[in-house]
Automatic annotation (TrEMBL), chain B:
Domain 2Fe-2S ferredoxin-type: residue ranges: 2-78
Protein name per its UniProtKB record: (2Fe-2S)-binding protein
SUPFAM superfamilies in UniProt: 2Fe-2S ferredoxin-like, CO dehydrogenase ISP C-domain like
UniProt lineage: Bacteria, Pseudomonadati, Pseudomonadota, Alphaproteobacteria, Hyphomicrobiales
An example Gene Ontology molecular-function term: metal ion binding
Record's keyword terms, sorted: 2Fe-2S, Iron, Iron-sulfur, Metal-binding, Oxidoreductase
Pfam families found in the cross-reference section: Fer2, Fer2_2
InterPro entries, per the entry: 2Fe-2S-bd, 2Fe-2S-bd_dom_sf, 2Fe-2S_ferredoxin-like_sf, 2Fe-2S_ferredoxin-type, Beta-grasp_dom_sf, Diverse_Oxidoreductases
């Protein structure tokens, strides 16, 4: 097998697929342990209420019930409060105001679905029955669900720690220079922009199976996690469940994450605690309703944005004020999302000399909000690209040419908001997308659509995002409680097969294939001789997990470093065995060769020699196994242009996406098939946000869209087939030149869709999701405004 | 409690279960066939689709007792003799899956679709027919491609056999 057929850049079908297409995947809820009991949570029906009494006597007497456990016992056992692991300071220097969050709440519930007690019983149904029989009395309090309302004087207060529900009042950039740019601007575009709240909705609901071994004082937790080592660290260091060496966390096959499975939630903690408390293994699997109510939501921003232009239509300043709804509690990385993952991307693809952003993060009586596919970057991109499109319309420039005029063209480029773009070619992706969509032919297509009574529009989005998080020292200086490196270990077995242990976690990304492609490419060995091991803290020493499109740029870089070490040792040994100079050894097609001679040794023979250790260079240890930690030197900056064409039926307001072109620059691509799949999925989530999805609350804090009957997930007939292409500038910051592709689709697509719709209907007053009703209203309002003029 | 017997993937399975036991619970917990998944509680997502007497059924919406005496096929019973079913093979070939959680239901729904409608199927038909199955990973693009390819292949096989 040669490296080219299965190596970097090859469109290899996935090695993990056989188990998934035959029903042999092993997800957390598929696991069983002898004697296993089942947990069901008693949840608050109120968004904000005092818990005045809890009577579990009837529930405890029901058949099969092992225990009903409450907040009081949890607190008495010293289980810690949930924490947010990223410290943000307000502009006045004060630290963020974090309210206490208990895994079971006994005093004041702050969102619908918050757990107040847990029932452990012999079957899931009996646990559920008993949970229904726990009598909890509540004294309802006024609730607040909208972040702007929560900041108003007299609004209901959630946490005593956070006066006025304000968590932080943060800023970035230089206010004085930005204000000066506006003072001398030839044109200013002003917009109010809402980024709608979303529910991540990985298809596998969260689940946990916790088993406590009393003799060993050791816990095992199978759980739906994107980062099992981080889970163990937090459960150990902050929640006092067990010291790390007494806690094994296994994240087996995981059915999608999109960010929602990064965080440590109350339910997983409670299962661990309950397994010790009851002496039984305890399993909990969320139903979809629980997922809607308790999985961390995404987005939910109110923003005001202003763009200043000079007389030549060059951008001179960008000023943003954002209010971010963080829900009822601060989830694990919630504080970083509307700050360092958001405002640092407000320069977009553009050379903007002055930027200032102010972000207020606010408590409300809603489900906690944290990272969801893109995490901050979709909010930034939506803001920048809606404003860019609107500004182009206002000054009468072609939206593509207005963007082009303002593109960053020399690299590295330091923005006014921390980020230093290392490489890119934004003209290349714009050109590729314009050509693919046949921009010149749009007017004719619009006219043809009009002849059928349809409104046709075209919308652009030139996105940039930051991936590969991140240099540990840099994020540490910005408040992160962890480092964001990654680890890898490469074990060459005596027969020459290779196991790669990685701290990254695959929950749909195909690491078992792409990571093996890297090894195949490097050593010229067949994919079938390589296995990828991940997701188990007993097997992999440590890792930071998978989120932020970091597994390629960071995780694979760690593997490269470990492969470097293995190769160096193997070459040294091969040189010794073939009695040649180390510098003359090459590794090609799975064989070590001595340059300029016909001497060669297959890879497996060198591996075997390392383990027999009969003939080693002096001082060399036996074995062939190396580990490495890789800490990134910078973020990576995937970027691209998306162009959407829509047709709208003016009588119904229904939008049809008739064409969607995506031109992305992801740097080096390991497997184009997998990368395309990531983009397809991301685009569909972004289109879902733009057209369909919305976590809607009523004023009392009830989630109105709390099931698949109400929350409109994109289905197959809601979205088109996509036309994808890539342009490449490699990332100079990591050994493979990778940038990351997991989130781009969700980041770049919403503004392209909304820009296309507003272009079609000639009215810019439209919020997401652009449902038929919303679009129909916007058309009507646009006509009314026109008539009034 | 009810004594329920059915044939699952060609084998007889008998269990004594609570009356309220759903078919999906019977399959997952009773028969140990965990390939059939539960992704929602409102019969919307389709992760639990199996075939009951040759028809696609959401097994979260049927009581085990209702399936008593039936022939049930789950994702585990689709391949025969170590050979993947053409739809399984097409999902793999066309990257029609990522996390794999919706995949069993998608494949069982696709097999039913092709059985009912024949092939080759066009994109619009496939997208409309997938109304009852939700995927969050793939954006459906490659699922549609996989089903189109499988339907063409199966139609070709049928034509050749006739």
């Amino acid at each position: 097998m040669t490296s080219s057929a299965e190596g970097i850049g090859a469109r290899v079908t996935r090695r993990e697929d056989k188990r998934f297409v035959t029903g042999k995947g092993r997800y957390t809820d598929d696991m069983t342990v002898p004697g296993m009991a089942h947990a069901a949570f008693v949840r608050s029906p109120h968004a904000h209420a005092k818990v005045t009494s809890l009577d579990a006597s009837a529930a405890r007497a029901m058949p099969g019930v092992e225990a009903v456990l409450t907040s009081e016992e949890l607190v008495a056992d010293g289980v810690g409060n949930l924490i947010c692991g990223w410290m943000i300071h307000s502009k006045d220097g004060s630290p963020m105001k974090m309210g206490a969050w208990r895994a079971l709440e006994g005093d004041t519930v702050r969102h619908v679905g918050q757990a107040v007690a847990v029932v452990v019983a012999d079957t899931p149904a009996r646990a559920r029955d008993a949970a229904d029989a726990v009598v909890v009395e509540y004294e309802p309090l006024d609730a607040v669900v909208d972040a702007l309302d929560a900041l108003k004087p007299g609004a209901p207060q959630l946490h005593p720690e956070a006066e006025g529900n304000l968590i932080y009042d943060w800023e970035i950039g230089d206010q004085a220079t930005t204000d000066a740019a506006f003072a001398s601007a030839a044109h200013v575009t002003r917009m109010e922009i809402r980024n709608n709240r979303l529910v991540p909705n990985a298809m596998e609901p969260r689940a946990a199976l916790a088993s406590y071994d009393e003799a060993e004082e050791h816990y095992t937790l199978w759980t739906t996690s994107q980062n099992p080592h981080v889970a163990r660290l937090v459960l150990s260091a902050f929640y006092n469940i067990a010291p790390e060496h007494k806690l094994r966390v296994i994240a087996p096959d995981v059915g999608g994450g999109f960010g929602s499975k990064i965080f440590i939630y109350p339910e997983e903690m409670v299962c661990l605690w309950a397994s010790k408390k009851t002496g039984l293994p305890v399993k909990w699997a969320a139903d979809r309703t629980e997922a809607f109510l308790t999985d961390a939501h995404g987005r939910d921003h109110h923003s005001e944005a202003e763009l200043a232009l000079d007389a030549d239509n060059r951008i001179t300043g960008f000023r943003v004020k954002t209010v971010a709804n963080l829900g009822a509690y601060m989830s694990l990385f919630s504080s970083s999302v509307p700050t360092y993952l958001y405002a640092t991307l407000l320069s977009g693809q553009y050379a903007i000399p002055a930027i200032h952003a102010n972000v207020k993060a606010v408590y409300t009586n809603t489900t906690p909000v944290d990272a969801y596919r893109g995490a901050g970057r979709p909010e930034a991109t939506y803001l920048v690209e809606r404003v860019m499109e609107t500004a182009a319309r206002e000054v009468g420039m072609d939206p593509a040419e207005f963007r082009r005029k303002n593109f960053v063209r020399s690299f590295p480029h330091q923005t006014p908001v921390i980020m230093c773009y290392d490489a890119g070619d934004y003209d290349a992706s714009l050109d590729a997308a314009l050509q693919a969509i046949d921009y010149a032919g749009f007017a004719a297509r619009k006219a043809e659509a009009a002849s059928r009574g349809k409104l046709r529009g075209i919308g652009f989005s030139c996105y940039i995002e930051a991936c590969g998080i991140a240099p540990s020292q840099a994020v540490g200086s910005l408040g992160a409680g962890v480092g964001l490196w990654e680890s890898a270990e490469v074990r060459v077995n005596p027969v020459g097969t290779i196991e790669v242990l990685t701290g990254s976690h695959s929950h749909g990304q195909g690491h078992e294939t792409t990571f093996a492609q890297l090894v195949s490419d490097r050593f010229g060995v067949g994919l079938d001789t390589v296995s990828i091991v991940h997701g188990d803290t007993d097997k992999v020493q440590f890792g930071m997990g998978t989120y932020g499109s970091r597994s390629g740029a960071v995780g694979m870089s760690a593997i490269v470093k470990a492969l470097d070490k293995v190769e160096a040792k193997a070459k040294k040994l091969a040189a010794h065995l073939m009695e040649a100079a180390e510098g003359d050894i090459t590794l090609e097609g799975g064989t070590f060769k001595v340059a300029g001679t016909d001497k060669e040794l297959p890879f497996f023979q060198v591996a075997l020699a390392a383990y027999t250790a009969h003939n080693m260079p002096e001082g060399m240890e036996p074995g062939l196994k190396e580990g490495a930690f890789y800490d990134p030197t910078n973020f990576t900056f995937p970027a691209g242009t998306y162009i959407c064409e829509v047709e709208i039926d003016p009588d119904t307001g229904k939008t049809e996406i008739v064409d969607f072109v995506a031109a992305d620059d992801f740097g080096t691509i390991i497997n184009p098939m997998i990368v395309e799949g990531q983009v397809h999925g991301g685009l569909t989530q972004g289109i879902g946000q733009a057209l369909l999805e919305n976590a809607a609350y009523d004023e009392d804090g009830q989630l109105l869209s709390g099931s698949y009957m109400d929350y409109c997930m994109p289905r197959a007939d809601d979205v088109p087939s996509y036309r994808l292409m890539t342009t490449v500038t490699t990332c100079p910051g990591n050994p493979l030149g990778m940038k990351g592709c997991g989130e781009a689709g969700a980041i770049g697509s919403p503004p392209a869709v909304i820009n296309a719709i507003t272009d079609a209907i000639g009215s810019n007053d439209l919020v997401m999701p652009a449902t038929p009703a919303a679009v129909w209203q916007a058309i009507r309002q646009g006509r009314t405004a026109e008539a009034a003029e | 409690m009810a004594d329920v017997t059915m044939t699952v993937n060609g084998k007889t399975v008998s269990k004594t279960v609570e009356d309220r036991t759903l078919l999906v619970q019977f399959l997952r917990e009773g028969a140990g066939l965990t390939g059939t998944h539960v992704g929602c509680d409102t019969s919307q997502c389709g992760a639990c689709v199996v075939h009951v007497d040759g028809k696609a059924v959401k097994s979260c919406t049927m009581l085990a007792a209702q399936a008593a005496g039936s022939e049930v096929t789950t994702i585990e019973g689709l391949a025969s003799g170590g050979e993947l079913h053409p739809v399984q093979a097409a999902f793999r070939e066309h990257h029609g899956l990522q996390c794999g959680f919706c995949t069993p239901g998608m494949i069982m729904a696709a097999v039913d679709m092709i059985n009912r409608l024949g092939g080759p199927l066009d994109e619009a038909t496939i997208r409309a027919e997938l109304e009852g199955n939700i995927c969050r990973c793939t954006g459906y693009h490659n699922i549609v491609k996989a089903i189109a390819a499988a339907s063409a292949e199966m139609a070709g096989v049928r034509t050749a056999a006739e």
